[in-house]
Structure formats: C-alpha cells, structure tokens
Amino acid sequence: MTAYTGRIAATPRGRNAGSRLVVSLLNAFGLPMLLLVIWGLASTRATSGFFPDPLTIARAFLDTWVGPAFVEDVLPSLARLGLGVAASIVLGIAAGTVIGLAHWLRELLEPLLEFVRAIPPPVLIPVAMLLLGITDTMKVVVIVSGAVWPILLNTIEGVRATDSVMKETADSFQVTWWERLWFLVLPAASPRIMAGVRQALSVALILMVISEMFASSSGLGYRIAYFQRNYLIAEMWSGILLLGLVGILLAVLFGLVERRVLRWYHGIREVNRV
C-alpha cells in the first residue's frame, strides 16, 4: 500500500517539475525566439539592406568569428575588459573602504568625487590618448575611469551602513582593527559591493567597445566600426550579436560568483522569507 501511494504521489511531483521546466524554458527563450521571428518577417519585406535576416547574420557570425578573428579581436577585447574590471574592483573596494571608515575623509572628498563622477568617461578618451598613446593601457584606463565608480560608491555606502550593534559587540570583545575589517566591515558591506560590481561589468563592456572604436587596430569595437565603414552589414550585426553573447556570459559567471560569495546573505533572506 505504501509503495502504491508513493507511486501515486510521485506522479504529480514529476508533472510539476516538468511544468516548471517548460515554464523556465519559455521564460528564457520565448521572447528571444519571438523577436527573431518578427525580425525575420520584417527583413523579408524590408527594402533596406541594413537589416539582413537572422540566417544571414548567423552565417556571417560563423564565417567572421569562428577563426582567426577570435584570436585577433575577441581575445584582446576580453583581456582589456578583464584587466579593467579587476583594477576597478581592487581600487573601488580599497578606496571605498578607507573613505567609508574615515568620516572626515568622506566629507573632504565628497565634492571632488561628485565632480569627477559627473564627467562622462568617453570624454576622457582624447586625454588618455595624449597621455598614454594608442595602447592597451589607455583602453584599460578608460574602462577603469567609468567602471570604478559603482564599486567605489557602493563600497562607501556599505561600509557606512555597518550595523552599530555589531560594532559595539566588536568593541566589547576588543577586536583588532584588521579583524574588524575582515570579519565585520567587509562581509557586512559585501551585498552592496557585489551590486556595484554587477553595474561595473555593464559599464566596462560599454567603455571597452567605445575605446576600441576610437583608437584601436584590434578588438570587437574596432571590428564592428570597420564593418560599418565598409558596408559589411551582416558582419556588423554579427559583431553586435557577439557583444550580446559576451554580456550574457558575464552575467552568468557573475551570478555564480555572487551566489558563492553571498551564500550567507541569501541564506538569511530565505530564512526571513519563510
């Protein structure tokens, strides 16, 4: 009787799991597939050659990026992006922690930070070219000039918002400054820091493309601009498609890292939700 009822009970659970899988797939791929169908139908009726159909773009994608262009353009772009993001994380967390802990320093630097933050990073590209030349260092500096701000500001706010009760508890146990930093301040600020890193990834990807379009002889931005200037429209769209795929890959990788770093935080949220 128990085995029989177990089989009966297992059937709805299996159906529910299958239904959830179907719903997840529809949520993930339903809208992109619908947009592809609309694009395909619109491109067949369009008189302009600037909007090729999805199959033409897919063929151009394989012909363009599966080969030497991956090594010559994609890998250098990813290297610049990685260096820029890494430098932004180190600088943003280090400076944000110091500014967040020192009230007098925060008041001293706040007007300057607000002024510098208001300057659009692409405006700094000509200045960076004059100072550093058309080099990879220049492109990394441009990426850092924009990507560091979300991390810096979120770190400052996260450090400032550290729970006062936890601070008093640390004082009562005579915790050293370094122990307080590593085991109290940074963990408490980590949710906001990770939110800043998420924003910085999008900014870094944009600045990577812009810097390569302005001053480069390789990279995704350079290649997309080259295709546009030479009216290689399908190849241009394939480069834009590749940028979108890079963005998705970054989001997936960041999600994995975030779940691991903030495992304790998500656990607390789940408990509070229940």
Automatic annotation (TrEMBL):
Cellular localization per UniProt: Cell membrane
SUPFAM superfamilies per UniProt: MetI-like
Domain ABC transmembrane type-1 residues, every copy: 74-258
Main location: membrane
One GO term describing the cellular component: plasma membrane
Any one Gene Ontology BP term: transmembrane transport
TM stretches of this protein: 21-42, 81-103, 115-134, 140-159, 200-224, 236-257
UniProt record similarity statement: Belongs to the binding-protein-dependent transport system permease family.
Name of this chain's protein: ABC transporter permease
